[in-house]
């Protein structure tokens, strides 16, 4: 094989990394990962790392599942590819559509396949506008989403998202997309009780609908738990309120479950955790545990029926929509999640244990808030307690803590100065102990570096 230094040099010379300052990265040198097993990955230098971020919120069944590779190889041998464009399809694609209809809640019975979460969100922008237009309501065109939300990196995905840094590059958002403030309890002061804050945060949607005129609003889209910005866990009643408002003004409700789907919040879908009924749901990541690219949009009966009976030709699709190899891997991934009762174990056993250990990290002088739901959480780092303040030069302290964690063999992500947690769902209690201990140590080293 090629030695690590050569790989790093070639990487710096020829590979632009997403979401990176590539000049800084080239100086620092990338880490080359070579192998994974369960919750661990190894780099080319032989360092073992506990991956408390499941790759990118996605390796739900853990690394090294040979069954998934075997299923992919088998499907490639049988029929490596066919599309669904010309009145054809393949068995795994059909079986996966039916399986998703069974697994997703309520009447989300109709699947459209994409390669990624971004493409799933692109798909809904067009399909939802089309849904209204063919019913004689073309003015129902506007989407509402949240500031700081993340819905992907395509033009529509990044426009629906509310990341200011992304909007700056390339002149986004595209027209017809409006943002409201997210339910960010920590940032909003945290003084109201949960119920009241849930109502206040949801009312921002109603205010925006009334400002635009309900007859002009197509849909609201949101991540049930906002991931990339820092794991914002909304009050328990928030989504019920959002649903009530959407129904009142006949605005479609789209749940972006790209992170939350397939067990992350302790149920198969966060729509169950928060007990609400989306009309449309977007999926990716955990659908294959990241082993192969796949995304999906689930439409409910109402939307699918209008699209089928009035929509004419669905003028949308990808070469790899419903790719049989990806569908076969997704089916096997779902079988593993079901047969091994992985989500039930998270909900009843390892999840509560992780929550206890993670909340205990809130005792650290550097942690202003430790929040967690199921298998997703964050630590908000603060200069002093109990004030809800941020460090000046946001992001520096988070990166410092992330780097200390990495040096001691733990992968956590940092956004601003929040440390984000999203381990493989198969994490054991012993691994939770390791995670908690290494996180505490990284916090200690960070505090010492800051002279706290
Ligand atoms: N939606 C959410 C909530 C996400 O977190 C992501 C990716 O992190 C996406 C959409 C985009 O998915 P992808 O990166 O597969 O395009």
In words, what does this structure look like?
This protein has 452 residues and is an alpha/beta fold. The protein has two domains: 31-61 and 341-449, Aspartate Aminotransferase, domain 1; 67-339, Aspartate Aminotransferase, domain 2 (3-Layer(aba) Sandwich), CATH 3.40.640. It is 42% helix and 16% strand. It has helices at 4-14, 22-28, 54-57, 66-79, 91-103, 117-133, 155-160, 164-168, 194-212, 238-248, 270-273, 301-310, 324-339, 342-360, 396-407, 429-449; strands at residues 33-37, 40-43, 48-51, 108-114, 142-146, 177-180, 217-222, 252-256, 280-283, 295-300, 367-373, 376-381, 410-411, 413-415, 418-421. A seven-stranded mixed sheet has the order 4-10-9-8-7-5-6, sandwiched between helices. A four-stranded mixed sheet has the order 1-2-3-13. Helix 4 (66-79) runs antiparallel to helix 13 (324-339), helix 6 packs across helix 12 (301-310) and helix 9 runs parallel beside helix 10 (238-248). The mean pLDDT is 97. The structure holds pyridoxal-5'-phosphate (PLP). Pyridoxal-5'-phosphate (PLP) binds next to helix 6. It holds the Pfam family Aminotran_3. This is Aspartate aminotransferase family protein. It comes from Arenimonas caeni.
CATH architecture of the largest domain: 3-Layer(aba) Sandwich
Low-confidence stretches: none
Overall 3D form: globular
Amount of helix: 40-55%
Strand order of the largest sheet: 4-10-9-8-7-5-6
The fraction of residues in strands falls at: 15-25%
Overall mean pLDDT stands at 97
Q: What is the CATH homology-level superfamily of the largest domain? A: Type I PLP-dependent aspartate aminotransferase-like (Major domain)
Structural class: alpha/beta
Number of helices: 16
Q: How many domains would you count in the coordinates?
A: 2
């Amino acid at each position: 094989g090629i030695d690590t230094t050569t790989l790093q040099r070639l990487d710096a010379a020829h590979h632009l990394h997403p979401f990176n300052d590539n000049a800084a990265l080239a100086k620092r040198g990338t880490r080359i990962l070579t192998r994974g097993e369960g919750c661990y990955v190894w780099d080319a230098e032989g360092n073992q790392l506990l991956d408390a971020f499941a790759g990118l919120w996605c390796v739900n069944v853990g690394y090294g599942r040979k069954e998934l590779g075997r299923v992919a190889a088998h499907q490639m041998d049988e029929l490596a590819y066919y599309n669904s464009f010309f009145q054809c399809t393949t068995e795994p694609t059909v079986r996966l559509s039916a399986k998703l209809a069974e697994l997703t809640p309520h009447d989300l019975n109709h699947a459209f396949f994409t390669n990624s979460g971004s493409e799933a969100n692109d798909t809904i922008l067009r399909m939802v506008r089309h849904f209204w237009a063919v019913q004689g309501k073309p003015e129902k065109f506007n989407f509402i989403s949240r500031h700081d939300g993340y819905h992907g990196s395509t033009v529509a995905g990044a426009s629906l998202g509310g990341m200011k840094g992304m909007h700056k590059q390339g002149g986004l958002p595209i027209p017809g997309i409006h943002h409201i403030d997210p339910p960010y309890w920590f940032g909003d002061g945290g003084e109201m009780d949960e119920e009241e804050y849930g109502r206040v945060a949801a009312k921002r949607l109603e205010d925006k609908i009334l400002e635009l005129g309900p007859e002009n609003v197509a849909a609201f889209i949101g991540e049930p738990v906002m991931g990339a910005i820092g794991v914002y866990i909304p009050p328990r009643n928030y989504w019920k309120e959002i649903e009530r408002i959407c129904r009142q003004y006949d605005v479609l409700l789209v749940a972006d479950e790209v992170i939350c789907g397939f067990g992350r919040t302790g149920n198969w879908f966060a729509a169950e955790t928060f007990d609400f009924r989306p009309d449309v749901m977007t999926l990716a990541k955990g659908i294959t545990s990241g082993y192969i690219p796949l995304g999906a949009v689930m439409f409910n009966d109402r939307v699918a029926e209008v699209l089928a009976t009035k929509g004419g030709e669905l003028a949308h699709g990808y070469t790899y929509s419903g790719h049989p190899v990806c569908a076969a891997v997704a089916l096997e991934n779902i079988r593993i999640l079901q047969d091994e009762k992985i989500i039930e174990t998270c909900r009843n056993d390892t999840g509560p244990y992780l929550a206890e250990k993670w909340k205990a990290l809130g005792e650290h002088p550097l942690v202003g808030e430790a929040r967690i739901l199921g298998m997703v959480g964050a630590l908000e780092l603060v200069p002093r307690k109990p004030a809800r303040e941020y460090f000046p030069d946001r992001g520096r302290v988070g990166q410092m803590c992330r780097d200390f964690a990495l040096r001691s063999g733990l992968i956590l992500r940092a956004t601003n100065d929040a440390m984000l947690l999203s381990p493989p769902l198969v994490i054991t209690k012993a691994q939770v102990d390791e995670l908690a201990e290494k996180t505490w140590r990284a916090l200690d080293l960070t505090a010492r570096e800051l002279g706290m």
